[in-house]
């Protein structure tokens, strides 16, 4: 880690990220090669469906592989990395200067990078996920006390719609101030900003909606930062992407920060 707490900048890559976020003057582009898009200029629907099935299968296989690798990761090593990652985040200028934060509440059974120290120490507006239904619908609700969280059916701690004082928790989509930082979970990530989640589509749907909100409000887009153990950072083109997959700006591991998007290269 750098003395200023900013983390080691591992590798700067021109990326997949650029495909989904082209320069405003560029013609519209897509996150997936056009061959995945059915329509007059794409392949016949049957071919597109077969290709979608291949993507789904590849995602499933990679999820299983990473879950297996996370299971054999030693608890002592995991704990050491949890401390390093959280300290790196807490000491970084991009975290310190952020005013509003959306973070996940880590679940040990899922072997997610721990966020408990970050959410306990944070002195800024904090919003955390609440799953509303199985149709990829999740809200980010503001919490002031970790003690108010309750375990959901997936055994992940989440806020109730109302807090202990019976006040409605603020939904980040209705907040008047922008969020500048998202700390994201996931199973696998790569150096091009690709992210593989657990398959619910919750984050992809939410991140897309928040991106639209920020555009409408003319707010700066928040930095989307994934937290990862080394086994979750994969090489090559192992993570297949579709048009609805939202890329991350940066990945943080115990080895340092991997800034990916132009915003991350500038701000991290
Ligand atoms: N901490 C945390 N909170 C989160 C998410 C997350 O990934 N992590 N989510 C992100 O979307 C949403 C919840 N989505 C989830 C989707 C799947 C599983 C889960 O337990 N998956 C099992 C496999 C279950 C199965 O295949 O039947 C697993 O991954 O081992 C948990 C949460 C909102 N809150
Ligand atoms: N913006 C969206 N609108 C509608 N459906 C979506 C959107 N994003 C994802 N989905 C759907 O959600 C399902 C799961 O998607 P995917 O496998 O990419 O999830 P994931 O990235 O692993 O999960 P998550 O986003 O919760 O971390 C897919 O059927 C996908 O089509």
UniProtKB/TrEMBL annotation:
Q: Which Pfam families match?
A: 5-FTHF_cyc-lig (PF01812)
Keyword Magnesium included in the entry's annotation: yes
Cellular component (GO) terms are:
mitochondrion
* SUPFAM superfamilies the UniProt entry points to: NagB/RpiA/CoA transferase-like
**What Enzyme Commission number does this protein have?**
6.3.3.2
Q: What terms describe the molecular function in GO for this protein?
A: 5-formyltetrahydrofolate cyclo-ligase activity; ATP binding; metal ion binding
Which cofactors are named for this entry? Mg(2+)
Q: Which UniProt keywords apply?
A: ATP-binding, Magnesium, Metal-binding, Nucleotide-binding
Tell me where on the tree of life, at the top rank, the source sits: Eukaryota
Q: Name one GO biological process term.
A: tetrahydrofolate interconversion
Family to which the UniProt record says this protein belongs = Belongs to the 5-formyltetrahydrofolate cyclo-ligase family.
Instruction: Return the protein name.
Output: 5-formyltetrahydrofolate cyclo-ligase
Give the source species.
Musa troglodytarum
């Amino acid at each position: 880690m750098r003395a200023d707490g900013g983390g080691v900048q591992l590798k700067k890559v021109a990326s997949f990220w650029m495909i989904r976020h082209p320069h405003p003057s560029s013609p519209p582009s897509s996150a997936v090669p056009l061959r995945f898009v059915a329509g007059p200029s794409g392949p016949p629907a049957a071919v597109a469906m077969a290709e979608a099935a291949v993507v789904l299968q590849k995602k499933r296989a990679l999820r299983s592989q990473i879950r297996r690798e996370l299971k054999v990761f030693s608890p002592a090593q995991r704990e050491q990395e949890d401390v390093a990652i959280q300290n790196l985040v807490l000491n970084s200028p991009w975290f310190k200067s952020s005013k509003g934060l959306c973070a996940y509440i880590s679940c040990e059974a899922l072997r997610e990078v721990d966020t408990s120290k970050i959410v306990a120490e944070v002195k800024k507006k904090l919003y955390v996920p609440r799953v509303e239904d199985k149709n990829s619908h999740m809200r980010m609700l503001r919490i002031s006390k970790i003690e108010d969280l309750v375990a959901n059916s997936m055994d992940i701690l989440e806020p109730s719609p109302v807090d202990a004082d019976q006040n409605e928790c603020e939904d980040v989509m209705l907040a008047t101030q922008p969020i500048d930082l998202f700390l994201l979970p996931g199973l696998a990530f790569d150096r091009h900003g690709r992210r593989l989640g657990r398959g619910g589509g919750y984050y992809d749907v939410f991140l897309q909606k928040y991106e639209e909100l920020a555009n409408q409000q003319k707010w700066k887009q928040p930095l989307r930062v994934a937290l990862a153990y080394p086994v979750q950072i994969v090489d090559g083109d192992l993570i297949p992407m579709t048009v609805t997959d939202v890329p991350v700006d940066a990945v943080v591991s115990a080895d340092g920060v991997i800034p990916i998007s132009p915003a991350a290269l500038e701000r991290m």
